[in-house]
Amino acid sequence: MPTKTEDLSPQGHDNPGQESADRNKAGDLMDGIYRHQRQIYDVTRKYYLLGRDRLIRELDVPAGGLVLELGCGTGRNLIKAAHQYPDAKFHGIDLSSEMLKTARAGIERSGLEDRILLACGDATAFDPQTLFGTKAYDRVFISYSLSMIPQWEAVIEAALAAVAGGGSLHVVDFGQQERLPTWFRRMLHAWLAKFHVTPRAELEAELASAASRHGGKLEFASIFADYTRIATIRLG
Predict the structure, then answer these.
(1) How many CB atoms sit inside 10 A of residue 217's CB?
(2) Model confidence pLDDT, tens digit, residues 182-225
(3) In angstroms, how far is CA 21 from the centroid of its own chain?
(4) From residue 43, how far is each of 23, 39, 40, 119, 158 by CA, in Å?
(5) What tens digit of pLDDT does each residue of 13-53 get?
(6) Could you give the strand order of the β-sheet that contains 137-143, starting from the edge strand earlier in sequence?
(7) Complete DSSP assignment for 63-124
(8) This model's pTM is above 0.85
(9) How many whole angstroms separate alpha carbon 170 and alpha carbon 52?
(10) CB–CB of 150/144 below 8 Å?
(11) SS3 category, 133
(12) How many angstroms separate the CA atoms of 72 and 67, rounded?
């Protein structure tokens, strides 16, 4: 299938060499974590990455629409969304080349090579024109990736910059689980830490601030006793 790998140039950074080194280091870390995990990722994660299918249902992609997923991982969400919205086309970006191997294989098995394109890139600083030849998207979504990316606020900003007027950004990620038993919360956080995952307590506040900066409207919900938080920013 047509896929592209780009060495993305940093945007507004005083030390481009250091930025590139940091990006490569982050990519190597993700590859190290998921080189073997990618083989069982979807089977195991379906039990605790809750809310992903709700996010896909709420994308409400218009006919002929264009959709981008940041941190697409194994391609599970892209494949499911492509089946749900057969008139739309999809792009996916991930920093892990190992995860993209699994994504490409799944897309090929599903016969969706003509509707899903992938690129290896940094969700905090990407140029969709360079990667895919497009300027903006009807829908952009981020599923359980903000909790994995240290500069997660930059991902939100970059995502909104890629949303076309009248489009929307959709986010699902871990909540704080404060309404669940303490033992469960501690066990979950210890498990997530093994994969460099940190639930973002400030997620709602950051999304609200980003929506205000971009003239958008935030819809935010805490579900499953705050196990999961799901949000949409709609741009005018």
Answers:
(1) 12
(2) 999 999 899 889 888 999 999 999 999 999 999 999 999 999 99
(3) 22
(4) 28, 9, 5, 24, 30
(5) 455 544 544 455 444 544 444 444 444 444 444 545 899 99
(6) 3-5, 116-120, 89-94, 66-70, 137-143, 163-174, 228-235, 216-223
(7) TT-EEEEES-TTSHHHHHHHHH-TT-EEEEEES-HHHHHHHHHHHHHTT-TTTEEEEE--TT
(8) no
(9) 10
(10) no
(11) coil
(12) 12
Q: What letters, b where the CB count within 10 A reaches 16 and e where it falls short, cover 84-118?
A: ebeebbbbbbbbbebbbebbbebbeebebeebbbb
Contact 163, 140 (CB under 8 A): yes
Q: Report strand pairing: 163-174 vs 228-235.
A: antiparallel
H-only helix segments in the chain? 16-37, 41-45, 52-59, 76-84, 97-109, 128-132, 152-161, 182-193, 203-213
* Cα–Cα dist 139/62, whole Å: 9
Residue 144 Rama label (left phi>0; alpha psi -120 to 50; beta) = left
Beta-sheet pairing, 228-235 with 216-223: antiparallel
> Cα dihedral sign for 72, 77, 80, 85?
negative
Which amino acid, residue 9? S
Say how many C-beta atoms besides its own lie within 10 A of residue 1's C-beta: 13
Question: Which tokens is 12 given?
Answer: 């507004």
Q: Whole-angstrom Cα distance, residue 110 to residue 84? A: 13
> How far apart, in whole angstroms, are the C-alpha atoms of residue 235 and residue 167?
6
